[in-house]
Fold this protein.
Amino acid sequence: MAAQPKPLPVHQPSYLEGGGIAGWLTTIDHKRVAVMYLASALFFVAFGGLEAMAIRVQLWRPDNHALSAAIYNAFFTMHGTTMVFLVVMPLLLGFLGNFLIPLQIGARDVAFPRLNALSFWLALVAGILLHLGWIRGGLPDAGWFGYANLTERYFTPGLAVDWWVIGLLVSGTSTVLTGLNFLTTIIAMRAPGMTYMRMPMFIWAQLVTSILILIAFPPLTIGLIFLLFDRFFDTHFYVASAGATPILWQHLFWLFGHPEVYIMALPAFGIISEVIPTFSRKPLFGYPMMAYSVCLIAFLSYGVWGHHMFATGMGPVADSAFAITSMLIAIPTGVKVFSWIATVWGGSLRMTTAFYFALGMVLEFTIGGLSGIMHASAPLDLQQTDSYFVVAHFHYVLFGGVMFAILSAFYYWWPKISGRMLGERLGKWQFWTTVIGFNLTFFPMHILGLWGMPRRTYTYGADMGWTHLNQLETIGAFILGIAFLFFYINIFKSLISGERAPADPWDGRSLEWSTPSPPPAYNFATIPQIRGRDAWWILKYGRAGSRGVAAYMSGQAPSQPQAGEPAFVEGIHMPAPSIFPLVLSLGVGMMGLGLIIDWYRIILIGAAVVVLSVIGMGFEYADFGEESHDPEHAPSSGGIDVRKIGVWSFIGSECVFFASLISTFIVYKSRSLAGPGPKILNIPLTSFSTFILLMSSLLMVLALAATQRGDKRWARIWLGGTVAFGLIFLCGQVYEFTSFCHEGMGLTTNLFSQSFFVLVGFHGGHVAIGVIWLSVLLVAAMTGKLGRSRALSVELAGLYWHFVDVVWIIIFTLVYLMQAVPGA
Amino acid sequence: MTRRGTNRHSVAAVAMQVAIALAIAGCSAEDRPMTTLAPKSDLAQWIQNLYVEVTAWDAIILAIVVSAFVLAVFVFSSRVGEAAPASTASSDLGLEIAWTLGPTLVLLMISVPTIRTIFRSQPAIAPAGALEIKVIAHQWWWEFDYPDGAKTSNELHIPVKRPIRLLLESADIIHSFWVPQLGGKRDVVPGQINELTFVATIPGMYPGQCAEFCGLSHANMRFRTFVDSPDDFASWDRAQLAGPVATPASDLTASSGAKVFADSPCTTCHMIQGISKGYVGPDLTHFGSRTTLAAGVLKNTPENVAKWIQNPQEIKPGANMPALLLPGPKLNALVAYLESLK
Amino acid sequence: MSDFAEAHGAQVRHPGAATYLIIAAFLVVLTAMEITVFYVHALRPVLVPVLIVLAAAKFALVAMFYMHLKYDGWLLTGVFVFPMMIATVLLVSLLMLFAYLSNHMAPLG
């Protein structure tokens, strides 16, 4: 039977209290991680905003000399990069997603708390790396989507673009880890009774966004890796004179870039779908269609990327296909706008600042979406792309849509997060200033674009007739600046002397409002049982569609039912803090810095720090490798351990990673101008390697079986055999690579060689990581630590190993056996 | 389409065009030379037609959304004074079907002319009688090579009412060729030949600009397109093919300027037919006849030429042309010589 | 597998060593077939489709048996298959787009 429950102390410490600085540096509490993301984003948004205002000052009049061309180009690059990667995504995912997902699904934390903290520290390292250009080498200045081949070292020498490449690689890693974390959390950690169709819409949005992250970031990673190789190792992935094409960068970038804007838009939609029902005192209209539309938007978002490339000459068939898919995506988006309005219709409205921003979002986003439809029509886009028209379009959807949603979310959830209310009066001032400033700045851009003003131009001619609208926009930008000043003041005042927030200030509908404001570290004293959509509303008023009249009319706050604060608390086991996420991130930072400033020893030290941290994290907890038995609720994933889901999610992402590499190989293999081609490949040797790798999978699966039945001896033998075969495979690769070099084919010889070495080399790198992983497990096995209860750790390593084998199956077929088949 | 339908369609189209023209107050092409709304070619006209159609639909949808929004927020909600919403209905199949099907139909209607225009504007082979001109984009200027051997920079001359097929190539990185009054833009990509095909309908001068960020002086990569009558074009073409205009011996300044040119590093990068063979910078054989210099940035006047030669980077940051820093008299002579090359 | 998972209806069946060995044998045979197709010149016309089918078969065998997907729920299969579909679409689209581009390349040199 359970131990004597302790009585609840009078004051439950919130998650914000205790631990000191060390507590924050080692925290893995999702709420603290969220607050750190917020602080970092509020810091970087000042940079991005000031850069925007400087841009507007320069554009005040024609032939202005406020900023030099070089600084201007750096500022618009950094403005875009900062806003996308260091502000909006961290706010939507790292801050709001992190804070709210566990609270809204009735969980105590995310699936992988240390990975969560790691995501934050990596994001911070990325932000610093992106800004180190201030100190040395200059800021990145090739645009936020850095088109090749301008980004080749020949055209943009110096460190500026190097900071950009490394910063984005680190930022991307951070985001992918977050996507993996959130996906697993939402799948596996929902409270009992919370089926998918009972989740808050914000959770639907985050679920789908997490999938998008996993499949959208790999092409960006590959594109950046190619650019890195071009800039550092003299390859020619984007150099036309070597037979390559800079268009490859555009495809890889936009395969990421378009889903990326939905990675930003979908959580924003999720926010609106939470705020509007609360302040209309009505359930969300058309919940099932809203859920399906979120899924459909995400799915379609992967098929529209070419609409960024209508001017590049893809041909009429491709142009038509992308035009159609781009128009299709407007349909589920329209469904959402109409459903939000239908939610407001007939509701009992409470006109709070949060609601104002949400309503404003709906209108501004609609305008942005309508200009998007114009862009979807390819021939029309040929006039509007690369002009101020598209600048208007994306600011309407990203600021008018996403930023308004973020501001709404802020006013809505700040009481829960900080325990204080934000001033409503200052909030309304901020709202109206924002609306005026925003529309004044960005609406005229539609007209300027139609009048032919190209984008990314540090100055313009006096005879073009663009001057007056530019001046209007500059004024608007300063008004926007003032609006943000109001925002910072409101936050500051709230923290110093803001009204203390009750648990449920807005009479909310979802579970986070059942916790104190701010919540304790463990979120819920007991995990609630979910009986329907709008779970908290049901707990308060008994039915999802009820009007909540009784308590409201009598002026009483609804009583807190059991899910809130029970009288007694059992010992709740929360995972312990860890220093590894911070240390690992520092190691990554060292590697990036060392590469850029040519300090090779730092790279090696950084790499060592990373490897040791990973191993340290693996064995940090006493129950490593054991399947978790949470006594409070079974995973909502049907019994599958969260770590298995995590590894499979990672594998899914890797599919897209390797597909990008393989596509490049096939496209480039026949484009070399000179030098060896696929005929150089040695089939007999590679066939032998293939057999070895296939057999290693057999050994791996036998090792797992042995571990699962507790046969330590055979587990060690099979595990050792897998490691051995892995090493033999690697030796085969090394032999193959060195013999190619002797035959005159090095990395930079020609397009075939570079595509081959990068593809097969990265696969080999994956094998090497697998060998290290298995060797660590082998050591654990040999020291008797890998008993039957820890079979999961062998299973996870096995999944990775088999995946690496499966990728080789594809490479062997497409690269080696199809060597005589011409490329694209 | 029946005649009545066509008439109604064109009346509506005209009404729409008027409305939009008024809405974007006073955008005559003289005031806004880079406007996309004053088509001077068949391609630009097709795009304009699409623009009118899509804008009309956008306006209708916006009106519907804004009205519904205003009604919902201000009219059909119960305000805070009332305790509860009028109803908590949260689904309505009819509505949901309507607002899915409605937009679908609208998009269908937009997609048909879209696809038609896509195919019409990208013919697989050059139209009969087309004049094919090679356009080579450099950082940060434009080179135009005609099939009969004429070469010029930054000022494109084309005959009116004859199909033009531009073959776009880049000498370095990605640029984008854009003359808004003549049609949409087309990127200029190294390693690839892109095409832009159109028929100019009205003679005139139409400014253009590079529309793909290409480094420091992307903003300074402008150019002009002159649509000439067939006779004007023919005489221009003849003049371009001819060698440089001989400097009259009486013009001492220009003659000594010719010597300055021949002795200076200019000859490494610039070609003047029969005198120098540089391919790095624009061809200067008929420099004096051009209306602008530095790729459309400055008007072609002696003061501006002098300013440019003395310090190109001040006008065009990052320009590859070195600052010559010639003494006054030599500079004047050089300028006079260059301006004499009509 | 744990009792806890069993209590919640998770699939528990594990193939035995015999199954693993049979799968391994299949993998070896399929690989041998692939190599044969490569070396037999008469089969060149059907090289691509045959290799794709054989590779897909090996892929499926490893995923279903060694990676246990056949015995796990639909969830993990979905988590794997969806990105794989996207990856395939990506590959095919890029090949088609670049095939068009090859016809518009500028002459080199």
